[in-house]
Each structure stands twice: as C-alpha cells, then as structure tokens.
Amino acid sequence: MLFNSYEFIFAFLPFTFFIYFYLNKKRLTKASNFFLVASSLFFYSWWNPIYLPLILISMIFNYVIGTSLTKNKEYRKVSKKQLLTIAIVANIALLGYFKYSDFFISNVNFVLGTEIALLCLALPLAISFFTFQQIAYLVDSYRGKIKEYDFMNYAIFVTFFPQLIAGPIVHHKEMMPQFANVRNKVINYKNIAFGLFIFSIGLFKKVVMADTFAVWATAGFDEATTLSLFEAWATSLSYTFQLYFDFSGYTDMAIGAALLFNIKLPINFNSPYKATDIQDFWRRWHITLTRFLREYIYIPLGGNRKGNFRTYINLMAIFIIGGFWHGAGWTFIFWGFLHGFALVLHRAWSSLGFKLYTWLAWLVTFNFVNIAWVFFRAKEWDDALKVLSGMLGLSGINLPNILSGKLAFLNHYGIEFGNFVINIKGDNFTPLWLLFGFILILVFRNTNQRINRFRLSKDNIIFYGVLCGVFLFVGVMFIGSESEFLYFNF
C-alpha cells in the first residue's frame, strides 16, 4: 500500500488510528499492540502477500537470537560472538539471495562464459530496510544495550507501518520507550495537527514535485537516444530533484503518520543539497543509513583510529557497501566508489588546511552529487555515458526559439534553435520547474527546522490549517495514477 494512495489516506490510516486509540482508551493495551502489528502486516502484504511469511520468519529468527544474546554465557553451547556472527550471516544471506543472486550469476556467466539460468526473483518489499534494522538490533543486544523479552513489542519495532517500507532505519532503544510511554496511548491533538501538516508537505513533495521531475528524468535516461546540452542537464537535475523530493517526501509522510500515533521518528534529511562539502552532505542525506554504516561497519573496522591510510580504506569500504546495498549493479557500486573517493579527497584536502569560498564549495559539492547520481540512476553504463556526454555538449547544443533572433550568429558555431527539450518530453515550463526546485531546496526551511519551530497557538492555527488543507487538497488532486516511491526498489 502506498502512502500516496486513496486507500491509505482515506481508509487505512484513519481506521487504524481510531481503532488503536479506542482499544487504548479501553485499557486493552495488548490488544492495541496486536492490532497495530496486524495492521502493519496488512499494510505490508497489500503489496504482495506472498512475502508476508518471509518477514514473519525473519522477525521470529532475530527475536529468538536477540533474546539469547542477552542471557548468561553458561546457558549457551556457543559464545555470544559466534551466535551474533551466525545471525548476521543468516540475515545477509537472506538479503543476498533475493537481491543479489542474479547479479552474481550474471557476472559468473560473463567471466567464465557459462550459461547459468538467472533466478529472476522479485525483490521482497522493504527487505533491505528491515534487514539492516534487525542487524542493528542484534548488535545492540550483543553489546548489552537491549533487553527485549516480549515478541509483540519486538514485532511493533520491526513492522510499525510508517517506517516499515523505506525507513528511516530506527533503533530499538529510540522506539520502544515511546510505545511503552503511557501518555502516548492517549490522543494528542497537537501531534495530530503537526503530523497532518508534515504528512501533507510530504504528499506534495511526492505527487507534485517528484512525479513531475520523474517524467523528464525517465525520458532522458530510458527513452532518448541522444541528449543535447540542455536536455542532458535537465535530465540529470530532474533526477537529482526527483530522488530528493521522492525520498524526503516519503520520510515526511512517515514522520507525519507516526506522529498521529504519538511516535517521533528520527529525521532522515536535513537540507542535503545545501551542503558545502561531501562530508556535510552525508551528515544531511539519508541520515539513518549513514548512522548505521558508521556505527556498525565503519567504527568496528577501526574508524579513524588506526592512521590516515586505514581511515581512507574504511571510508571506501563503507561507501562501496552503501552503494551495493542500494542496488545489485556495477553502476551502484561505482556510485559508492565515487562518494568514498570524494570523502578521502575531502579529508586529505582538509588536513592540508585548504578552504574554498562558501559559494564555490557549494557549487562543487552540488555538481559532484548531481553527476554521481547519473550513475546511480542509469540502468546501464551506456545510459550514464549518454547523459554525461550530453552534459559536456558532445551531442549538440539546442537553445529555445525565443533566443534565435538575438543569438542567430551562434548558428555558425553549430548551435541550433528550437526543440531544445523535445527528447525528454519537456516544454517551455521545464526550466521554470528546475528553478522552482532550486528555490525549494535552498531557500525554504526543511522538516527538521519546522519540527523544532512548530508552535500551535490561536494566532497561527488558521494559517497552519489553511496551509495543510492546501497541500492535502493539491496532493490528493495530483494522485491520479499511483506511482511507487523510488526507494521501494532498494
């Protein structure tokens, strides 16, 4: 079930909300927890019920291992470390089987000249997210940070529907105290107001902004055979904006939906395209994934405690792993390599005491991120090369007809006029949309800032109510044909 669907907005969400709090009002806490888990599993299985047993088996397995890791050593036949290793390997093997089998088979066929048949497995929804989330739970249990002996509580932690499909990747210790808090069992009208407001912003981001940019990005990457200079830049920027508004929109909707239940999810975005260096970017983009990679891979590998060379190796490792986590393809791995290499360069540059003007640092950072996204989006290497060559002007330059009168002399230099966005299904409004995208990401406050500043009073209640109503109305009107969130594919 999609957040941007009529079924979710007008049926599932209000029904789940009212029944959950009704049961809590009657002090049927266990029943309310069971209902929330059942609703979340229904939400998950709406997409494809065949994978419902998979998440159930995964939950039971990790719950049993997690509780075992909290017991005393003398009651075990294996050490805690061995048990943790077995559990992590099992989780990664499950993820690898569904997500990476065909990738490895196709590479074996290419290298050895074999003809092993591909498995062509459908990727189970949310498997990348609930796998990482449960690995974090196991490691925290091993470290003695968690003691969870109630399976229903654990099931809520894994399946809570606002964050189940595409994150944020949450920790047990930051979620379960909220569910255990008695005050959170009662309807909180301030949380409802702010939750609906944030949800409406996320819906607008997705169905108005992201889905508009998706048309040009899809046409440029998947359909066009060649791209002129402006078409190529419009294609890359459209995907850069599509990905941001799509994923941050999902996160806003998740935060907003969770607030209805008095649960505060961690912030996943903090204006990442305002970053002035690549390290700053990763402090702002997909924050919970960065946190996971840092705490459970980078630091165990040694972090920055074993000299510069080892630090650089560790940085490369976590970003290549991060790229591979996003998708089973060499383009994803190369995207991770680019970001890892950029982090290494940034650390080396900073250690020498060099600095750039703020505006130049932003320009370099944004353009690097934008170019790297080309490899992230491209289905094949040829698609990436097509866009990049167009961005360099190697496939010709077309300008709008309106400029032909004053700039006609440019014809002598091979520059043409007219049809300047025809290959990406664009029109004269495409440049204005790109400008609008820049304004939204660089000028306006983000969700995190709005959460910190939100104060509902008699003076602003009408303003927030009208703004929320406008966002919801426009969002619902734009739903039309449902579109998946991009991170469903990862």
Automatic annotation (TrEMBL):
Pfam families: MBOAT
One GO-annotated biological process of the protein: alginic acid biosynthetic process
Domain of life, per lineage: Bacteria
Cellular compartment(s): Cell membrane
Name this protein carries in UniProt: Membrane-bound O-acyltransferase family protein
GO cellular component: plasma membrane
Family named by the database record: Belongs to the membrane-bound acyltransferase family.
Membrane as UniProt keyword: yes
Topology relative to the membrane: Multi-pass membrane protein
Predominant subcellular localization, coarse grouping: membrane
Keywords: Acyltransferase, Cell membrane, Membrane, Transferase, Transmembrane, Transmembrane helix
MF terms in GO: acyltransferase activity
The organism of origin for this protein: Malaciobacter mytili LMG 24559
